[in-house]
Task: structure prediction
Amino acid sequence: MTSLTAGAQHTVYTLEKCYALARQNYPLIKKHDLVARSSNYSIENAGKGWLPQFSVSGQASYQSQTIDFQKAIGGGPGLLIPPLSKDQYKIQAEVNQNIYDGGRIKNEKDMIQANEASQQQSLEVALYELNDRINQLYFSILLIDEQIRQNDISKSNFQSAADQAKAAYDNGTSFKSNVDELLAEIASIELVNIDYRANRKSYLDMLAVFIGQPLDEKTKLIMPPQILTDPVIKRPEIALYDLNRKIYDVQEKELKTIYLPKFDAFLQGAYGRPTLNFIDNNFGGWYIGGVRMIWNLGSLYTIKNNRTNIRLNKESVDVDKETFIYNTNLSLVKQGQDLIKYTSLIKQDETIISLRSSVTNAAKAQLENGVVTVHDYIAKSNDENLAKQSKILHSIQLIQAQYQYKNISGN
Result:
């Protein structure tokens, strides 16, 4: 189920459900699996460094001279040692088995995993940004719904007054202009509602693209409950900074493996001319086996600078993290002021609505008694409607500000 269903008339969505659907539908979500699979293949390849490594090489050469054993040994005519051929051939196969690599393979796996974690968290940061876009669309639709609902109430009140005015006109106690003025006001409200519905459809179409679900004019969005704000920052960017710093931790460990010796066992098998028996000028085969050490000490020249670079990179990440937290706290302070502002505005709206409602009720009674004109009643009623619209706007802005605060802090 992708949503709640209210009867057979319309489908109901919550804000949290829209968050989840938008995340599932966003194309970038596919990269999570791609990054994980790529990392698994890379780790598997790194682990194969412990498998025997095979190599084959061949060589054919011609050289200007070779050892003349006859002259080198100083033998007489009876010493028959043929000179080596100047054209020489060799084909060789070698197998190496890693015995000790100083932790290079393990460090390579750690680096792959650290990079994967960073890439995955980068995707989370990008996906998290969807919440703000969903908030804008979702609360815009809710605001329009409430404005239409309030207009319908106002229209119903004017319709009731128009019915009374028509009855009075039919009885000869009122003017037709009174009826027409009320009907014109009803038409004006409906004109505003047409504009609201067009905007609602536009927002719904955009929301439908984000969540990958069909939405129409019957779709109902649930008003989210008010929530308590938490100033503790838990944004996905924080984890990303920590993971990026961990990459440099792995690089620092890698420096220790570079200047350690490497040991492997090897076995060479070859066929060619000359063989290891250098006084035999015939083609033949031979093999060599043993243990080999490779120790590259040239890395010691740069290890100090490399460590300094890594330390500077860590400090750079720490500064970026500190800057992000600083800017986020500034945004939370501003958002917190908005919460205070909307709360105060709503209280003032309630006072104004109470007064405007009292004035409208009095004007309605006076209209029925012929004390005031229809125009006066419409003006008083519209003032009340505007006050109620103002409260609707501020009430939704308050809830939206709460969820925006939640989105900024990452809670």
Summary: Residues 52-100+261-294 form a domain with the Outer membrane efflux proteins (OEP) fold (CATH 2.20.200). The first strand starts at residue 4 and ends at 6. Residues 104-170 form the longest helix (67 residues).
